[in-house]
Predict the 3D structure of the following.
Amino acid sequence: MAIDVEAVRRQTRGVLSVVHLNHAGSSLVSRPVMDAVVGHLRREEEIGGYEAAEEAADRLEGVYSSVARLIGAGPNEIALAENGSRAWAMAVYSFPFVPRSRLLIGHTEYAGNVLALRQLARRNDLQIVVLDDDPHGQVDVAHLQRELDRGNVAMVALTHVPMANGLVNPAAEVGRRCRAAGVLFVLDACQSVGQMPLDVQALGCDVLAGTGRKFLRGPRGTAFLYVRASILERLEPAMLDGHSAVPAGAEGFEVRGDARRFESWETSAAGRLGLGRAVDYALALGLDVVQERVVGLAEQLRCALAAVPAVTVHDRGINRCGIVTFSVKGSDARNLRTWLADRRINVSVAPAPSTQVDAVLTGTGQGPDMVVRASVHYYNTETEIQRLVGFLRGTS
Ligand SMILES: Cc1ncc(COP(=O)(O)O)c(C=O)c1O
Protein backbone atom coordinates (compact mmCIF):
# COMPACT_ATOMS: atom_id res chain seq x y z
CA MET A 1 0.00 0.00 0.00
CA ALA A 2 1.27 3.47 -0.86
CA ILE A 3 2.30 5.82 1.94
CA ASP A 4 -0.37 8.23 3.15
CA VAL A 5 1.89 11.27 2.95
CA GLU A 6 -0.60 13.63 4.57
CA ALA A 7 -0.99 11.24 7.52
CA VAL A 8 2.74 10.84 8.14
CA ARG A 9 3.20 14.61 7.85
CA ARG A 10 0.48 15.15 10.45
CA GLN A 11 2.61 12.99 12.75
CA THR A 12 5.75 15.04 12.00
CA ARG A 13 5.58 18.40 13.74
CA GLY A 14 8.78 19.68 12.18
CA VAL A 15 7.25 19.92 8.70
CA LEU A 16 5.30 22.95 9.93
CA SER A 17 8.54 24.86 10.47
CA VAL A 18 11.04 23.65 7.87
CA VAL A 19 11.55 21.91 4.56
CA HIS A 20 13.75 19.18 5.94
CA LEU A 21 16.12 17.70 3.36
CA ASN A 22 18.80 16.48 5.75
CA HIS A 23 17.80 12.90 6.53
CA ALA A 24 21.34 11.71 5.85
CA GLY A 25 22.27 13.95 8.79
CA SER A 26 19.36 13.48 11.16
CA SER A 27 15.63 13.17 10.49
CA LEU A 28 12.66 14.92 11.98
CA VAL A 29 11.29 12.41 14.47
CA SER A 30 7.63 11.42 14.35
CA ARG A 31 5.16 12.11 17.14
CA PRO A 32 4.98 8.43 18.23
CA VAL A 33 8.79 8.36 18.61
CA MET A 34 8.76 11.61 20.57
CA ASP A 35 5.94 10.28 22.79
CA ALA A 36 7.91 7.09 23.52
CA VAL A 37 11.00 9.08 24.53
CA VAL A 38 9.29 11.82 26.51
CA GLY A 39 6.82 9.39 28.08
CA HIS A 40 9.67 7.34 29.48
CA LEU A 41 11.59 10.38 30.70
CA ARG A 42 8.42 11.46 32.54
CA ARG A 43 8.22 8.05 34.23
CA GLU A 44 11.87 8.40 35.25
CA GLU A 45 10.98 11.77 36.73
CA GLU A 46 7.94 10.34 38.53
CA ILE A 47 9.13 6.99 39.87
CA GLY A 48 12.93 6.80 39.35
CA GLY A 49 15.21 5.63 36.55
CA TYR A 50 15.66 2.01 37.57
CA GLU A 51 12.00 1.65 38.47
CA ALA A 52 10.88 3.13 35.13
CA ALA A 53 13.17 0.70 33.28
CA GLU A 54 11.67 -2.19 35.26
CA GLU A 55 8.19 -1.03 34.36
CA ALA A 56 9.18 -0.84 30.69
CA ALA A 57 11.16 -4.11 30.72
CA ASP A 58 8.97 -5.87 28.14
CA ARG A 59 9.03 -2.89 25.79
CA LEU A 60 12.79 -2.53 26.19
CA GLU A 61 13.20 -6.20 25.36
CA GLY A 62 10.90 -5.72 22.38
CA VAL A 63 13.36 -3.25 20.83
CA TYR A 64 15.73 -6.14 20.07
CA SER A 65 12.96 -8.08 18.34
CA SER A 66 11.94 -5.02 16.33
CA VAL A 67 15.49 -4.33 15.13
CA ALA A 68 15.95 -8.03 14.38
CA ARG A 69 12.78 -8.03 12.28
CA LEU A 70 13.96 -4.91 10.44
CA ILE A 71 17.06 -6.66 9.12
CA GLY A 72 16.03 -10.34 9.09
CA ALA A 73 18.18 -11.33 12.09
CA GLY A 74 17.54 -13.08 15.40
CA PRO A 75 17.11 -10.97 18.57
CA ASN A 76 20.18 -12.70 20.07
CA GLU A 77 22.23 -11.26 17.18
CA ILE A 78 21.37 -7.63 18.05
CA ALA A 79 23.18 -5.21 20.36
CA LEU A 80 22.06 -1.63 20.98
CA ALA A 81 24.56 1.22 21.05
CA GLU A 82 24.75 4.99 21.32
CA ASN A 83 25.94 5.63 17.76
CA GLY A 84 26.69 3.79 14.56
CA SER A 85 30.44 4.30 14.79
CA ARG A 86 30.62 2.74 18.23
CA ALA A 87 28.37 -0.15 17.19
CA TRP A 88 30.62 -0.85 14.19
CA ALA A 89 33.80 -0.47 16.22
CA MET A 90 32.67 -2.73 19.05
CA ALA A 91 32.56 -5.61 16.61
CA VAL A 92 35.55 -4.68 14.44
CA TYR A 93 37.94 -3.98 17.36
CA SER A 94 37.03 -7.41 18.75
CA PHE A 95 38.19 -9.31 15.71
CA PRO A 96 41.27 -11.54 16.33
CA PHE A 97 43.50 -10.22 13.54
CA VAL A 98 46.37 -12.30 12.27
CA PRO A 99 49.43 -10.05 11.78
CA ARG A 100 50.28 -9.21 8.18
CA SER A 101 46.80 -10.06 6.90
CA ARG A 102 44.91 -7.64 4.68
CA LEU A 103 41.78 -5.50 5.12
CA LEU A 104 39.82 -4.72 1.96
CA ILE A 105 37.74 -1.56 1.99
CA GLY A 106 35.66 0.34 -0.53
CA HIS A 107 36.71 3.71 -1.89
CA THR A 108 33.75 5.35 -0.16
CA GLU A 109 34.25 3.76 3.25
CA TYR A 110 33.03 6.09 5.99
CA ALA A 111 35.93 8.30 7.07
CA GLY A 112 35.58 7.43 10.77
CA ASN A 113 35.76 3.72 9.94
CA VAL A 114 38.91 4.29 7.91
CA LEU A 115 40.60 5.96 10.87
CA ALA A 116 39.66 3.06 13.14
CA LEU A 117 40.97 0.57 10.59
CA ARG A 118 44.22 2.52 10.35
CA GLN A 119 44.64 2.23 14.10
CA LEU A 120 43.93 -1.49 13.95
CA ALA A 121 46.30 -1.85 11.03
CA ARG A 122 49.07 -0.12 12.97
CA ARG A 123 48.45 -2.19 16.09
CA ASN A 124 48.22 -5.52 14.32
CA ASP A 125 50.59 -4.98 11.40
CA LEU A 126 47.81 -5.20 8.81
CA GLN A 127 47.65 -3.84 5.30
CA ILE A 128 44.66 -1.81 4.13
CA VAL A 129 43.80 -2.32 0.46
CA VAL A 130 41.40 0.18 -1.11
CA LEU A 131 39.29 -1.46 -3.78
CA ASP A 132 38.78 0.39 -7.05
CA ASP A 133 35.48 1.90 -8.03
CA ASP A 134 33.80 0.50 -11.12
CA PRO A 135 32.90 2.94 -13.93
CA HIS A 136 29.65 3.78 -12.11
CA GLY A 137 31.46 4.77 -8.91
CA GLN A 138 30.41 1.64 -7.01
CA VAL A 139 32.82 -0.80 -5.44
CA ASP A 140 34.42 -2.83 -8.23
CA VAL A 141 33.44 -6.43 -7.49
CA ALA A 142 35.90 -7.76 -10.08
CA HIS A 143 38.73 -6.08 -8.18
CA LEU A 144 37.30 -7.46 -4.92
CA GLN A 145 37.36 -10.95 -6.42
CA ARG A 146 41.00 -10.59 -7.53
CA GLU A 147 42.01 -9.53 -4.03
CA LEU A 148 40.03 -12.35 -2.42
CA ASP A 149 41.73 -14.79 -4.81
CA ARG A 150 45.14 -13.50 -3.72
CA GLY A 151 44.20 -14.63 -0.21
CA ASN A 152 45.35 -13.51 3.25
CA VAL A 153 42.26 -11.31 3.69
CA ALA A 154 41.12 -10.78 7.28
CA MET A 155 38.04 -8.72 6.54
CA VAL A 156 36.11 -6.83 3.90
CA ALA A 157 34.54 -3.59 5.14
CA LEU A 158 32.03 -1.78 2.97
CA THR A 159 29.80 1.24 3.41
CA HIS A 160 26.46 0.34 1.86
CA VAL A 161 25.38 3.91 1.07
CA PRO A 162 28.24 6.44 1.21
CA MET A 163 27.49 9.58 3.18
CA ALA A 164 27.54 11.78 0.08
CA ASN A 165 27.16 10.05 -3.23
CA GLY A 166 23.56 9.00 -3.88
CA LEU A 167 24.62 5.47 -4.79
CA VAL A 168 23.89 2.11 -3.20
CA ASN A 169 26.89 -0.22 -3.27
CA PRO A 170 26.23 -3.79 -4.50
CA ALA A 171 26.49 -5.20 -0.98
CA ALA A 172 24.75 -8.52 -1.66
CA GLU A 173 27.22 -9.27 -4.46
CA VAL A 174 30.12 -8.42 -2.13
CA GLY A 175 28.57 -10.61 0.56
CA ARG A 176 28.21 -13.53 -1.83
CA ARG A 177 31.86 -13.35 -2.80
CA CYS A 178 33.03 -12.97 0.81
CA ARG A 179 31.04 -16.01 1.82
CA ALA A 180 32.47 -18.06 -1.01
CA ALA A 181 35.97 -17.02 0.10
CA GLY A 182 35.20 -17.57 3.81
CA VAL A 183 36.08 -13.95 4.62
CA LEU A 184 34.33 -11.83 7.26
CA PHE A 185 32.12 -9.12 5.73
CA VAL A 186 31.38 -5.97 7.75
CA LEU A 187 28.67 -3.70 6.37
CA ASP A 188 28.13 -0.11 7.46
CA ALA A 189 24.42 0.42 6.89
CA CYS A 190 24.14 3.75 8.72
CA GLN A 191 22.88 5.57 5.62
CA SER A 192 20.83 2.74 4.13
CA VAL A 193 18.81 1.54 7.11
CA GLY A 194 15.39 3.15 7.19
CA GLN A 195 15.32 4.12 3.53
CA MET A 196 15.32 0.62 1.96
CA PRO A 197 14.68 -2.99 2.96
CA LEU A 198 17.71 -4.75 4.49
CA ASP A 199 18.07 -8.47 5.00
CA VAL A 200 21.29 -9.75 6.50
CA GLN A 201 20.79 -13.17 4.91
CA ALA A 202 20.46 -11.68 1.41
CA LEU A 203 23.31 -9.22 2.08
CA GLY A 204 25.55 -12.02 3.29
CA CYS A 205 27.16 -9.83 5.93
CA ASP A 206 28.55 -11.09 9.25
CA VAL A 207 28.43 -7.71 10.94
CA LEU A 208 26.11 -4.78 10.21
CA ALA A 209 25.94 -1.43 11.97
CA GLY A 210 23.04 1.01 11.73
CA THR A 211 22.34 4.35 13.33
CA GLY A 212 18.99 5.55 14.66
CA ARG A 213 18.75 9.24 13.87
CA LYS A 214 19.15 9.23 10.08
CA PHE A 215 16.68 7.54 7.73
CA LEU A 216 15.24 5.43 10.56
CA ARG A 217 13.88 8.61 12.18
CA GLY A 218 14.90 7.52 15.67
CA PRO A 219 16.19 9.80 18.42
CA ARG A 220 19.78 11.02 18.43
CA GLY A 221 22.24 8.89 20.38
CA THR A 222 20.78 5.55 19.29
CA ALA A 223 22.15 2.78 17.07
CA PHE A 224 22.34 -0.97 16.71
CA LEU A 225 24.78 -3.70 15.81
CA TYR A 226 24.12 -7.06 14.20
CA VAL A 227 26.64 -9.87 14.59
CA ARG A 228 25.91 -13.23 12.98
CA ALA A 229 25.35 -15.86 15.69
CA SER A 230 27.88 -18.24 14.16
CA ILE A 231 30.77 -15.76 14.64
CA LEU A 232 29.82 -14.34 18.05
CA GLU A 233 32.10 -16.71 19.94
CA ARG A 234 35.06 -15.65 17.80
CA LEU A 235 34.63 -11.99 18.68
CA GLU A 236 35.63 -11.34 22.27
CA PRO A 237 34.69 -7.71 22.98
CA ALA A 238 37.59 -5.29 23.17
CA MET A 239 36.05 -3.93 26.38
CA LEU A 240 34.00 -5.69 29.06
CA ASP A 241 31.81 -4.60 31.92
CA GLY A 242 29.29 -6.17 34.28
CA HIS A 243 26.67 -6.32 31.54
CA SER A 244 28.78 -7.99 28.88
CA ALA A 245 30.48 -10.57 31.12
CA VAL A 246 30.24 -12.25 34.53
CA PRO A 247 33.04 -13.36 36.89
CA ALA A 248 34.06 -17.01 36.60
CA GLY A 249 36.28 -18.66 39.22
CA ALA A 250 38.84 -16.71 41.23
CA GLU A 251 40.38 -14.77 38.34
CA GLY A 252 38.33 -15.47 35.26
CA PHE A 253 35.30 -14.12 33.49
CA GLU A 254 32.74 -15.43 31.10
CA VAL A 255 31.50 -13.31 28.22
CA ARG A 256 27.78 -13.50 27.56
CA GLY A 257 26.76 -15.60 24.58
CA ASP A 258 24.58 -13.18 22.64
CA ALA A 259 25.38 -9.97 20.78
CA ARG A 260 24.74 -7.93 23.92
CA ARG A 261 28.31 -8.79 24.80
CA PHE A 262 29.09 -5.63 22.78
CA GLU A 263 26.90 -3.39 24.94
CA SER A 264 27.67 -1.56 28.16
CA TRP A 265 25.42 -1.51 31.20
CA GLU A 266 24.33 2.09 31.46
CA THR A 267 22.29 3.47 28.61
CA SER A 268 19.40 5.76 27.74
CA ALA A 269 16.26 3.66 28.17
CA ALA A 270 14.19 6.51 26.70
CA GLY A 271 16.41 6.59 23.62
CA ARG A 272 16.11 2.85 23.17
CA LEU A 273 12.33 2.98 23.43
CA GLY A 274 12.34 5.77 20.85
CA LEU A 275 14.54 3.70 18.55
CA GLY A 276 12.20 0.73 18.90
CA ARG A 277 9.20 2.91 18.10
CA ALA A 278 10.97 4.32 15.03
CA VAL A 279 11.74 0.82 13.81
CA ASP A 280 8.13 -0.28 14.32
CA TYR A 281 6.96 2.84 12.49
CA ALA A 282 9.18 2.06 9.51
CA LEU A 283 8.10 -1.58 9.50
CA ALA A 284 4.43 -0.58 9.59
CA LEU A 285 4.90 1.65 6.54
CA GLY A 286 6.86 -1.09 4.77
CA LEU A 287 10.49 -0.56 3.75
CA ASP A 288 9.78 -1.46 0.14
CA VAL A 289 7.20 1.32 -0.25
CA VAL A 290 9.47 3.67 1.69
CA GLN A 291 12.26 2.94 -0.78
CA GLU A 292 9.99 3.39 -3.78
CA ARG A 293 8.89 6.84 -2.63
CA VAL A 294 12.37 7.95 -1.55
CA VAL A 295 13.94 6.88 -4.84
CA GLY A 296 11.14 8.59 -6.78
CA LEU A 297 11.45 11.89 -4.90
CA ALA A 298 15.26 11.86 -5.15
CA GLU A 299 15.14 11.23 -8.89
CA GLN A 300 12.61 14.03 -9.27
CA LEU A 301 14.98 16.34 -7.39
CA ARG A 302 17.98 15.30 -9.52
CA CYS A 303 16.04 15.95 -12.75
CA ALA A 304 14.80 19.32 -11.56
CA LEU A 305 18.31 20.31 -10.41
CA ALA A 306 19.86 19.19 -13.67
CA ALA A 307 17.54 21.57 -15.51
CA VAL A 308 18.98 24.57 -13.64
CA PRO A 309 21.87 25.86 -15.78
CA ALA A 310 24.34 26.63 -12.95
CA VAL A 311 23.74 23.36 -11.08
CA THR A 312 25.81 20.17 -11.39
CA VAL A 313 24.47 16.95 -9.88
CA HIS A 314 27.29 14.70 -8.63
CA ASP A 315 25.55 11.43 -7.76
CA ARG A 316 26.92 8.25 -9.23
CA GLY A 317 25.97 4.56 -9.16
CA ILE A 318 23.42 2.32 -10.85
CA ASN A 319 21.08 1.95 -7.90
CA ARG A 320 20.47 5.27 -6.25
CA CYS A 321 18.85 6.35 -3.02
CA GLY A 322 17.56 9.39 -1.17
CA ILE A 323 20.88 11.27 -1.08
CA VAL A 324 21.30 13.95 -3.76
CA THR A 325 24.57 15.87 -4.08
CA PHE A 326 25.06 18.97 -6.19
CA SER A 327 26.98 22.18 -6.56
CA VAL A 328 26.06 25.59 -7.94
CA LYS A 329 28.60 27.32 -10.13
CA GLY A 330 30.10 30.30 -8.37
CA SER A 331 28.53 29.45 -4.99
CA ASP A 332 30.34 27.98 -2.01
CA ALA A 333 28.46 24.94 -0.66
CA ARG A 334 28.67 26.11 2.96
CA ASN A 335 27.35 29.57 2.11
CA LEU A 336 24.57 28.02 0.09
CA ARG A 337 23.59 25.83 3.03
CA THR A 338 23.36 28.88 5.28
CA TRP A 339 21.46 30.82 2.63
CA LEU A 340 18.92 27.98 2.31
CA ALA A 341 18.68 27.62 6.10
CA ASP A 342 17.69 31.30 6.25
CA ARG A 343 14.84 30.34 3.93
CA ARG A 344 13.93 27.41 6.21
CA ILE A 345 15.29 24.69 3.96
CA ASN A 346 17.58 22.24 5.74
CA VAL A 347 20.36 20.69 3.66
CA SER A 348 23.92 19.83 4.60
CA VAL A 349 27.36 19.91 3.00
CA ALA A 350 29.69 17.02 2.33
CA PRO A 351 32.92 16.26 0.50
CA ALA A 352 32.39 15.91 -3.25
CA PRO A 353 32.08 12.24 -4.25
CA SER A 354 35.20 12.42 -6.42
CA THR A 355 37.46 13.87 -3.73
CA GLN A 356 36.09 12.27 -0.60
CA VAL A 357 38.31 9.23 -0.47
CA ASP A 358 41.44 10.98 -1.61
CA ALA A 359 41.04 13.50 1.17
CA VAL A 360 40.57 10.79 3.76
CA LEU A 361 43.10 8.30 2.57
CA THR A 362 45.98 10.30 1.22
CA GLY A 363 46.21 12.35 4.40
CA THR A 364 47.30 15.40 2.45
CA GLY A 365 45.60 17.64 4.97
CA GLN A 366 43.93 19.41 2.08
CA GLY A 367 40.21 19.93 2.52
CA PRO A 368 38.17 18.29 -0.22
CA ASP A 369 35.80 20.23 -2.47
CA MET A 370 32.45 20.46 -0.79
CA VAL A 371 29.04 19.87 -2.32
CA VAL A 372 25.52 20.43 -1.07
CA ARG A 373 23.79 17.26 0.15
CA ALA A 374 19.98 17.26 0.02
CA SER A 375 18.56 14.01 1.35
CA VAL A 376 14.86 13.28 0.97
CA HIS A 377 12.53 11.01 2.89
CA TYR A 378 9.06 9.63 2.26
CA TYR A 379 7.29 12.47 4.04
CA ASN A 380 8.82 15.13 1.82
CA THR A 381 6.58 16.42 -0.93
CA GLU A 382 6.93 17.43 -4.55
CA THR A 383 6.10 20.99 -3.46
CA GLU A 384 9.03 21.01 -1.04
CA ILE A 385 11.36 19.85 -3.78
CA GLN A 386 10.11 22.57 -6.10
CA ARG A 387 10.67 25.09 -3.32
CA LEU A 388 14.35 24.17 -3.07
CA VAL A 389 14.82 24.16 -6.84
CA GLY A 390 12.93 27.45 -7.16
CA PHE A 391 15.33 29.16 -4.77
CA LEU A 392 18.32 27.75 -6.64
CA ARG A 393 16.91 28.89 -9.94
CA GLY A 394 16.67 32.36 -8.42
CA THR A 395 20.35 32.32 -7.51
CA SER A 396 21.57 31.28 -10.95
C1 LIG B 1 28.08 6.02 6.12
C2 LIG B 1 28.14 6.37 7.58
N1 LIG B 1 28.62 5.48 8.44
C3 LIG B 1 28.69 5.73 9.75
C4 LIG B 1 28.28 6.93 10.24
C5 LIG B 1 28.44 7.18 11.71
O1 LIG B 1 27.24 7.10 12.39
P1 LIG B 1 27.18 7.76 13.84
O2 LIG B 1 27.29 9.24 13.63
O3 LIG B 1 25.86 7.32 14.40
O4 LIG B 1 28.33 7.24 14.60
C6 LIG B 1 27.80 7.92 9.39
C7 LIG B 1 27.38 9.23 9.90
O5 LIG B 1 27.21 10.18 9.20
C8 LIG B 1 27.71 7.62 8.01
O6 LIG B 1 27.27 8.53 7.13
